[in-house]
Amino acid sequence: MQTDTPSQLPRSKLKSLLAIRDDAPRLSSEWLELMRFLASYYQRPLGESVIGSLPPRLRSVKPLPRKAVATSMASSPQEFKPAHTLTAAQADVVSRASASLGRFEAFLLHGVTGSGKTEVYLHLIARVLERGGQALVIVPEISLTPQLETRFRQTFPGAAIALLHSGLEDVARTSSWLAAARGDASIILGTRLAVLAPLPKLALVLIDEEHDTSFKQQEGLRYSGRDAAVYRAKLAGCPVLLGTATPSLESWSNWQQKRYVRLELPERAVPGARLPEVRVLDLRRETPEQGFTPSSVSAIAARLERGEQSLIFLNRRGYAPVLACEACGWAAGCARCSARMVMHAAAERSREPHGRLRCHHCGAEDAIPRACPTCGNVDLRPMGRGTQRIEETLGARFPAARLERIDRDSARRRSDLNRTLERAQRGEIDILVGTQLLAKGHDFPGLTLVVVLNADTALLSTDYRAAERLFAVLEQVAGRAGRRDRPGEVLVQTRYPEHPLFAALARHDYAGFAQSQLAERKAAGFPPYVFEAALRAEAPKLETAMRFLREAARRVDRPEGVQVYDPVPHVITRRAGYERAQLIMQSSSRPALQAYVGALGAQLFDAAHREVRWHLDVDPIEFD
Ligand code: ADP
Ligand code: ZN
Ligand code: ZN
Predict the structure, then answer these.
(1) What does the pLDDT average to over 228-234?
(2) pLDDT tens digit string along 188-199?
(3) Does the CB atom of residue 113 touch ligand 1 within 6 A?
């Protein structure tokens, strides 16, 4: 950073230096430009964005722990031990993408599940290590890092690998960050926050599962890790590869508009491995018992007999989503949110559901009442099913099966999750029950059956992105089946068997699905055909939040070509005691929207707003 430029700020706004850090590497102007861009694009103060991007230890002027500074990460001569000879399709992708090493180019790697995208990443990284560059690899979830780390260590025994995610101990994260920033680490593997690390020798950016919404930060600097990574590659003048079986419609449309080059892996990599067969089970014809149709039960039984694995997918954790009184209609609700409390069973595998009530929106907990608080009825009923209840049902139905549940509750301790995943990979688990935590990126060799229990809630959603997400999660979870020589089967239980989404899924026809979704988005004027931003406010009273939004919109002149909609309350209006509302802004011109949002932000930052908490969200993806 330059020190001799005169400040444009008045003296009163300047602070004095407390100390100069000389135990950390200097930050480059390219890095500062990245932070400037993100702060201005996502409407947050630069200082806050910079501080937030540093590992906690570097946010203060206290000297760094010696262990963090001392850990050296020098790479030894590069050794490359690939696990496979590339298929022709993989080799094409590698040669096309590596042809642009040394300059910016964005590639959408559209490879079906099991097509060997990881192998492609490894070969590209090898080219980068040969040239002494750094490769940045980002994944949507911490739980996906261990298996990739293992692959990297096996393939590049001499390479210095730095992990960067929020699950690391302070010292480990600091020393990773330092190794990345000094250019000592040659592979940087992490979640979205890794995109914000200084990388002086950056030569390749890989974004795995690029469609995943977890790349978007939902607080503070609300950046998209994916978009920031693409911008980063542009700054560094290096190629970026966005890998997925189900591209986001944004990336798909970027390909259609020739901003990205699409590279395809249309087949599975293992010789003989096919995409699984998808069958839709009509819940109106086959009556489910405790959540399972007879066909699903016999399909699971057949897998157990053959010693193959099954995965039961249900995107709802807990025991039951509702605890209700049938006598008077009362249902347990959260005192601080406009939402029901979810019933959680006590211990793992508990047969008696005397657990607790939990709110999935604010985290509130309550004991399960002995009797209905309105009418005194002691016979309260859990209604509907979550993963715990499904686990209980399966345990009773198949007592000899080795059964495990994987969701945010069972995965509280990260080491437990990793151990369970490893056991599943080794075939030591017969039936896996889980949420979308299980859908992402995992490779379970013995898995041949996936049963999708209840996908219908997403079909009925008012969120225009619900269908895109549902297709992605179903194609991903389906993609866990039959990844080796034994064919996979996917059973989808639904009340809407004729829905076009399921037909596209059965054909594994992402392109067809994307085309119909994009046509709908275009007709309705939704992204990616327009750009969006949201101004959100929350206050103890809904009217306060609504008034704040109305006045904010009135205060700034709206330029031609920018649409500002009336403020509306959130679907789940009250959360953690605050009433929430939002105002959506749209434009087909990104600069016009940016200018408007910037002016709005400047106004709001300047005035004090008591009683209201507010934020701007650029390219928002969550609207609940
Ligand atoms: P994806 O990430 O595209 O879903 P993976 O990278 O997990 O797919 O690969 C799926 C499986 O195919 C893995 O078991 C991997 O070892 C195997 N595989 C990848 N490339 C090849 C290849 N060239 N020849 C044989 N098997 C391969
Ligand atoms: Zn009652
Ligand atoms: Zn709550």
Answers:
(1) 98
(2) 999 999 999 999
(3) yes
Q: For position 347, what pLDDT does the model report? A: 63
Q: How far is the CA of 560 from the centre of ligand 3 (A)?
A: 41
Q: What is the average per-residue pLDDT within 109-127? A: 97
- Please tell me the distance between residue 443's alpha carbon and the centre of ligand 1 in angstroms: 9
Name which residue sits closest to atom 2 of ligand 1, judged by CA. Answer: 117
Q: What is the rounded distance in angstroms from the CA atom of residue 360 to the CA atom of residue 605? A: 31
> Does position 136 have pLDDT exceeding 90, yes or no?
yes
What is the distance between the alpha carbons of residues 478 and 472, in angstroms, rounded to a whole number? 10
Residue 345 φ then ψ, to 5°: -70, 160
Would you list the DSSP string of 549-596? HHHHHHHSPPPTTEEEPPPEEEEEEEETTEEEEEEEEEES-HHHHHHH
| Rounded Cα–Cα distance for residues 284 and 246 (Å) | 29
Mean pLDDT of the chain: 92
Question: CA 164 to CA 190: how far, in whole Å?
Answer: 5
Ligand lying nearest the CA atom of residue 337: 3
Residue nearest to atom 25 of ligand 1 (CA): 270
For residues 447-470, give the mean pLDDT: 92
State whether the beta carbon of 275 lies less than 6 angstroms from ligand 1: no
> Could you tell me the pLDDT band of residue 75, with boundaries at 50, 70 and 90?
low
Look at residue 1 in the predicted model and tell me its pLDDT.
Answer: 47
Quote the pLDDT of residue 62.
81
Please state the atom number of ligand 1 nearest to the C-alpha of residue 111: 3
pLDDT beyond 50 at 349:
no
Contact 310 CB / ligand 1 (< 6 Å): no
Cα 117 to middle of ligand 1, angstroms: 7
pTM: 0.93
pLDDT of residue 551: 93
Strands (E), 191-267: 202-208, 239-244, 261-265
The pLDDT value given to residue 538: 96
Site to probe by mutation for ligand 1, drawn from 120, 148, 270, 483 as the one with most ligand atoms within 8 Å of Cβ, is 270
**Residue 118, ligand 1, Cβ within 6 A:** yes
First to last CA, the chain: 41
| 478: confidence class by pLDDT, cuts 50, 70, 90 | very high
Does the C-beta of 270 come closer than 6 Å to ligand 1? yes
**pLDDT value of residue 352:** 45
In order, the DSSP letters of 399-417 are TTS-EEEESTTTTSSHHHH
Inter-residue contact 251 to 242 (CB < 8 Å): yes
Taking the centre of ligand 2 as the mean of its atom positions, its distance from the CA of residue 302, in whole angstroms, is: 43
Residue 76, pLDDT score: 65
**What's residue 70's pLDDT?**
66
Q: Which residues surround ligand 2, an ion (CB under 5 A)?
A: 325, 327-328, 330, 372, 374-375, 377
Give 565's Cβ-side CA count (13 Å radius): 15
> What DSSP element (H or E) covers 531?
strand 531-539
**Does ligand 1 come within 6 angstroms of the Cβ of 269?**
yes
Kindly state the tokens that stand for 13: 């706004």
Which protein residue's CA is at the shortest distance from atom 10 of ligand 1?
114
Find out whether the beta carbon of 346 lies less than 6 Å from any atom of ligand 1: no
